[in-house]
Amino acid sequence: MARLIRTVFDRRVREIGLTRAQWLVLTRLYRRPGASQSELAEMLEIDRASAGRMIDRMEKSGWIERRADGLDRRIWRLHLTTEARRMHAKMWRRAEATVDDALGPLSLAERAQFTRMAARVKERLQQMASGPDGPAAVRSARARAA
Q1: Global pTM?
Q2: CATH class assigned to 2-102
Q3: Residue 120: CB partners within 8 Å, gap ≥ 6?
Q4: How far, in Å, CA of 126 to CA of 43, rounded?
Q5: Residue 51 CB-density burial (10 A; 0-12 exposed, 13-18 middle, 19+ buried)
Q6: pLDDT, tens digit (0-9, with 9 covering 90-100), for 6-60
């Protein structure tokens, strides 16, 4: 389902001139202004060289600015420009519309139920991703589900 939503969203933001790589960078830096190139690469799950090339292109387009780190001269902190924040706002409106359209066949009660269930699944996946699952964690998750 997530892949289908991304596919629909990709089409919608392509209309405003964004590629998937660009909207991912905009989203990550909007949420974490001042991230370093290495941190951004980790968030995007790509290598630092690929992130660097992407940042270079977006900087040349006027969407990202590099600012020196106050404590380490080797690190540049990445920030969205005013233009990039405007584009993020446009993109976000399309993201909300995409989710609303996807949930369109559901009643308000079904949407609320779906949201609660998806949040429980997400929480469980986060637990699984954060480390070994002991029996206590599994019992705790089952107890919340009951």
Answers
A1: 0.77
A2: mainly alpha
A3: 144, 145
A4: 15
A5: buried
A6: 999 999 999 999 999 999 999 999 999 999 999 999 999 999 999 999 999 999 9
| Residue position matching structure tokens 């480390």 | 131
In angstroms, rounded to a whole number, what is the distance separating the alpha carbons of residues 39 and 55?
12
Strands of the 35-36 sheet, one edge to the other: 35-36, 76-80, 64-68
Quote the tokens at residue 81. Answer: 């420009």
CB burial class (10 A; 0-12, 13-18, 19+) of residue 75?
middle
Domain-by-domain residue ranges, the chain? Answer: 2-102, 107-146
Say which amino acid occupies 121: V
